[in-house]
C-alpha cells in the first residue's frame, strides 16, 4: 500500500513526539511492505514565526493532497501575547474547519501497568474502555455573533451556540456506528433541561437510534456526566456530545486512567483526510529535554493505520508493541514510578520500533 | 434575633432532609435565644400538582417577605413528560431570576471520616477546602434567542451566551471578597482562547483584582480546570466562573471528597433574601424510605446562619455538631461503611440536635 502522510509537528514537544510516530510508521511500512511518504508542514507558533500566520495556505494544501494528517501540538508562552487571530490555537481551529473535521474521537483506556499514576482508586478505573466522540466544528466555537457591544449604555457581550440539525445527525450516527463495533452502548450528553440546542440534540439522538436497534441509547445531562465520569467511568462505552461539552468532558476523562501522556485522538471528516494527534499539549516546560512521552503520538499513528488506511493488523502491531514495552517496565518520566526503567523520549521510541 | 425563614421542601427527599435543617435551626434558636419563624411554600413538581406551575406567585411573595429561603430539591419521574415550561427545574431557574440570585456558592470540604467514600485516592483529596462561585443568572441559561428556525431549507437551532459586563464584575468581586476571608487565592475559569465572552470575563477579573493586592488571581481554561480538579484539587481556594461552566465544574467537584450527600450551597443576591439548598437532587428512588442524608441540608442551614444572619458562632455550632456525629461513627446509608453505625434520616437528625 502507498500512502501520503502530512506531518505537522507544531510547537514545543510536538516535534519530539511526532518523530516517534513517524519512525514507528516507517518500521510498520518495512515489516508489512507498505510505502508511507511523509511531507512536513507548519502549524501554530512555528508557522507564525515562518509565515506570519498560524495556518498558512501551504499547510492546508499539503493536508488536502495527503491521505492522512499527523499533528504534534501547538502553543507556547512566546505566542501568548499575540492578538487572537495569530494565536497558535487559531491554527488548530482553522484546520478543523478547512478539512471539515467534524468528529473528534478520544479513546480512554485502562492500562493495568499505569494504574498507580491515576488520581482515582484502582477499583474505580479497572477495565475502563470508552471513546468520547466530540462534535468539532459547530456550537459555541464558530457561531456568530461572537462580539461585544453597548446596550442601554451597558457593555455587553454575546457568543452564539449554533447548530444545523444535519451536523448533529452525522456525528451522532458516527457514534452509533462505533458503538456497534464495541460494547453496543451510546451515552448522549446534553443539557436538555436548559438549552434548546440540547433538546434538538436529544431528538436527533432518538431519531438516529431507530436505525440501530442493537445499540442502547442513554441520555445524561452534562453536569451529571461530569460526576459519573469520576464515580463510575466503567459504565461508559461511546459518549457523544456537542463541541464545548466535549472539550470539557474529554479533558476530564483523560486524567481518569493516569495515562494522559498515552492518549491518542483522531478527527474525522466526511471524505478525508483524517487528522491524528496526541491529546496532550505542547508542554513548553519540558521542550527539548528529551523526556516527553511519545506513546500518545505513536498510538495516534495506530489509529491512522486503522481508520484512514484500514490496516487493522498493522494498527494492532503498534498497540501490542506499546503494551509489551510497558510490560517490560519502560517508562518515560511522566508515567514512571519506583522499580521501573526510566527512559528518554528517543529511547522509548527505539524500544517500540525494536518490538515491531 | 428574630428571623423569618421561607421553607420550600420541593419534591422527593427534599421534604425529608429539609425537616432536618428546620429542626436544627429550632435547636439553635433555643440554645442561643433566637426566634426563627418558618413559613412553608411550594416549588417544583409539588407546586405543579397544587398550582399548575412549578413556581407560583405565592411562593415568590413568601420568599420576598422572608429573611432567608431554605430549599429542598425538585424533580421526579412523574414530571419528566411535562412540557418544558412546567418542568420542576423551571421553578428553580425562575426563582433564581425572580430573587436575583446571581452567585451560587458551593464549598467542597474534605472529611477525613469519609475519605473511603471518595473515588479518588486519599493523598489527592486530603485537606481539600475550596469554594466554587458560579454565576447563576446569566450566560447560556437566559440569553435570547434560544430557538429553532429554518435557514436555506435546513433546520437550525441557536442558544445565546449573553453577559453584561456588570454581571461579571459583581460575581467576580464576590469571589475576591470570599478569598480574602480564606486562603487568598482566586482561580478564574474561562475559555478565553475561543469565546469573546470569556475574553471579557478575563479582563474583568484582571480589573477587579487591582483592588485586591492581597489576593492572588490565576486564570485557568475550562478544559484544563476539569482536569486539575481531579489531579490536584488541593491547589484551589476560590474558583469563580460563568453559569454553564460552573454547572459542570461544581458537579464535578462535588464527587471529589466522597461527600456528595453532605455538600451545602448558598445562592446570594444583591439585597437578599439568600437561598440555601443541598447540592444533591430529589433522589426519587429513595423517597419516603427514611434513608436520605440530611447533613447537606443541615449544613446549608449553617451557611444561612453565617451568611444571612451573621451568626458565626451559631453556624460553627451546627458544623461542629455534624463533625462530632460523624466522628462518633453515625452514618446514613450513602456514606456508610464497614464498622460504622448506620442510621436513618430521622435518627441522624436526632443525633445532630442532641449534640447541639
Ligand atoms: C486549543 C483549543 C482551542 C482546543 C479546543 O478547545 O478545541 C483544545 O482545547 C482542544 O481540545 O483541542
Ligand atoms: C436543574 C438545572 C436547571 C440546574 C442548573 O443547571 O442550574 C441544576 O443542574 C443545578 O445545578 O442547580
From TrEMBL, chains A, B:
Organism per entry: Robertmurraya mangrovi
Known partners and oligomeric status: Homodimer.
Family statement: Belongs to the isocitrate and isopropylmalate dehydrogenases family. LeuB type 1 subfamily.
Name of the protein: 3-isopropylmalate dehydrogenase
UniProt-annotated binding residues for substrate: 96, 106, 134, 223
Pathway: Amino-acid biosynthesis; L-leucine biosynthesis; L-leucine from 3-methyl-2-oxobutanoate: step 3/4
Required co-factors: Mg(2+); Mn(2+)
Domain of life: Bacteria
GO molecular function terms attached to this record: 3-isopropylmalate dehydrogenase activity
Cofactor note: Binds 1 Mg(2+) or Mn(2+) ion per subunit.
Domain Isopropylmalate dehydrogenase-like: 4-352
Alphabetical UniProt keywords: Amino-acid biosynthesis, Branched-chain amino acid biosynthesis, Cytoplasm, Leucine biosynthesis, Magnesium, Manganese, Metal-binding, NAD, Oxidoreductase, Plasmid
Residues engaged in binding NAD(+): 76-89, 281-293
Location of this chain's protein in the cell: Cytoplasm
Catalytic activity: (2R,3S)-3-isopropylmalate + NAD(+) = 4-methyl-2-oxopentanoate + CO2 + NADH
A UniProt-annotated Pfam family: Iso_dh
Function, in words: Catalyzes the oxidation of 3-carboxy-2-hydroxy-4-methylpentanoate (3-isopropylmalate) to 3-carboxy-4-methyl-2-oxopentanoate. The product decarboxylates to 4-methyl-2 oxopentanoate.
EC number(s) on file: 1.1.1.85
Database matches in InterPro entries: IsoCit/isopropylmalate_DH_CS (IPR019818), IsoPropMal-DH-like_dom (IPR024084), Isopropylmalate_DH (IPR004429)
Listed PROSITE patterns: IDH_IMDH (PS00470)
Residues the entry annotates as binding Mg(2+): 223, 247, 251
Amino acid at each position: 500500500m502507498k500512502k501520503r502522510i502530512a506531518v505537522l509537528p507544531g510547537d514545543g514537544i510536538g516535534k519530539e513526539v511526532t518523530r516517534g510516530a513517524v519512525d514507528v510508521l516507517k518500521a510498520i511500512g518495512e515489516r508489512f511492505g507498505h510505502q508511507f511518504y511523509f511531507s512536513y508542514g507548519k502549524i501554530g507558533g512555528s508557522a507564525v514565526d515562518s509565515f506570519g500566520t498560524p495556518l498558512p495556505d501551504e499547510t492546508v494544501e499539503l493536508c488536502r493532497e495527503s491521505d492522512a494528517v499527523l499533528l504534534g501540538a501547538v502553543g507556547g508562552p512566546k505566542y501568548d501575547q499575540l492578538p487572537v487571530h495569530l494565536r497558535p490555537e487559531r491554527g488548530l481551529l482553522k484546520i478543523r474547519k478547512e478539512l471539515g473535521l467534524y468528529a473528534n474521537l478520544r479513546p480512554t483506556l485502562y492500562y493495568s501497568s499505569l494504574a498507580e499514576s491515576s488520581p482515582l482508586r484502582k477499583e474505580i478505573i479497572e477495565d475502563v474502555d470508552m471513546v468520547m466522540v466530540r462534535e468539532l466544528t459547530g456550537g459555541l466555537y464558530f457561531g456568530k455573533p461572537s462580539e461585544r457591544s453597548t446596550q442601554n449604555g451597558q457593555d455587553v457581550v454575546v457568543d452564539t451556540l449554533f447548530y444545523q440539525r444535519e451536523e448533529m445527525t452525522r456525528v451522532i450516527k458516527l457514534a452509533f456506528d462505533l458503538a456497534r463495533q464495541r460494547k453496543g452502548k451510546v451515552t448522549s450528553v446534553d443539557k436538555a433541561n436548559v438549552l434548546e440546542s440540547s433538546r434538538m440534540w436529544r431528538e436527533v439522538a432518538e431519531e438516529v437510534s431507530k436505525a440501530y436497534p442493537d445499540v442502547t441509547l442513554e441520555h445524561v445531562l452534562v453536569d451529571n456526566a461530569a460526576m459519573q465520569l469520576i464515580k463510575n467511568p466503567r459504565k461508559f462505552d461511546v459518549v457523544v456530545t456537542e463541541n464545548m461539552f466535549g472539550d470539557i468532558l474529554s479533558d476530564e476523562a483523560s486524567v481518569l486512567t493516569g495515562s494522559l501522556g498515552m492518549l491518542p485522538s483522531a478527527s474525522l471528516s466526511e471524505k478525508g483526510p483524517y487528522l491524528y494527534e496526541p491529546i496532550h499539549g505542547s508542554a513548553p516546560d519540558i521542550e527539548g529535554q528529551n523526556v516527553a512521552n511519545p506513546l500518545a503520538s505513536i498510538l495516534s499513528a495506530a489509529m491512522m493505520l486503522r481508520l484512514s488506511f484500514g490496516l487493522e493488523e498493522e494498527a494492532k502491531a503498534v498497540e501490542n508493541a506499546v503494551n509489551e514495552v510497558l510490560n517490560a517496565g519502560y517508562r518515560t518520566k511522566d508515567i514512571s514510578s519506583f522499580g521501573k526503567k526510566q527512559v528518554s523520549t528517543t529511547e522509548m521510541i527505539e524500544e517500540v520500533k525494536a518490538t515491531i
